[in-house]
Amino acid sequence: MILIFSFIVGLCLGSFFNVLLARLPRGKSIMGRSQCIQCLRTLSWFELFPVFSFILLRGKCRTCKTSIANRYPAVELITAMVVFLLVWQRGVDFVLFQPWLSILVILYVLLAFFDSLYMILPDVIIFPAIGIAVIYVIRSPMSLNLILSSLLFTAFFAILYLVSRGKWLGFGDVKLVALIGLTLGYPLGFAAVLMAIWIGAIIGIGFLLIDKKNLKKELPLGTFLCLTTIITIIWEPLFNQITRLL
Ligand SMILES: [Zn+2]
Predict the structure, then answer these.
(1) Is 206 exposed, middle or buried (0-12, 13-18, 19+ CB in 10 A)?
(2) Ligand 1 centre from 5 Cα, in Å?
(3) Which residues pair with 42 in a beta bridge?
(4) pLDDT for 45-101, tens place per residue?
(5) From ligand 1's centre to the CA of 13, what distance in Å?
């Protein structure tokens, strides 16, 4: 029951993310009713249900028949999946009574969407996330580890950023690893960053082999970083067991 409920909460969160993803990059207010992007008709209440409305409307606007991008239900389903997995793996108490990490997971999901769609990691999300991470760090028994890891990750990525003049990674990625350091510390944060770089390298090489024209295609490193961090938080007890074996 609680898992179904968490999935629905995730769908609603994903629906809100769609609003942010559509409006933040255009500098539009996030308040106000949603409209069709083509005919600008204000949507009715029954067109606002996550995923269900999309299926009901067969992916088209009711009046102008413009296709609604698959991105909308995809964002909702992925967000719902993450909330579901988090509650399933870590339990309700973890989510409700130590909310900082759970809030951070949600923000990492949002950052991953922004980076994969627009190649940006907006400051309006990263800075509040760092604020929440600082609260988490203060309350954590491993504060020193978290702070030192964050400084180390930031320094390493800042050097890569400067040496490559922003070609290998963006400055947003530097801020993101500062956040990951505060969230996971050593060794889990280190493992998450390393996994993200590997995923990026494997996909990058894959693109090269399939299509040489994609050589210049930028890969969203931030999305991979968010993904591995989310996975690490959800399955942290398992990863802790593994690192104890090593
Ligand atoms: Zn329309």
Answers:
(1) exposed
(2) 31
(3) 35
(4) 899 999 999 999 999 999 999 999 999 999 999 999 999 999 999 999 999 988 999
(5) 23
Structure tokens of 87? 């509650």
| pLDDT tens, position by position, 2-55 | 999 999 999 999 999 999 999 998 888 888 889 888 898 999 989 999 999 999
Burial of residue 223 (number of CB atoms within 10 Å: 0-12, 13-18, 19+)? buried
Single pTM value for the model: 0.93
Q: Report how far ligand 1's centroid is from the alpha carbon of 45 (Å).
A: 15
Q: Is 8 helix (H, G, I), strand (E, B) or coil?
A: helix
Determine the distance separating the centroid of ligand 1 and the alpha carbon of 47, expressed in angstroms: 12
> Residue 87, Cα to own-chain centre: how many angstroms?
17
Give 55 Cα–ligand 1 centroid separation in angstroms.
Answer: 16
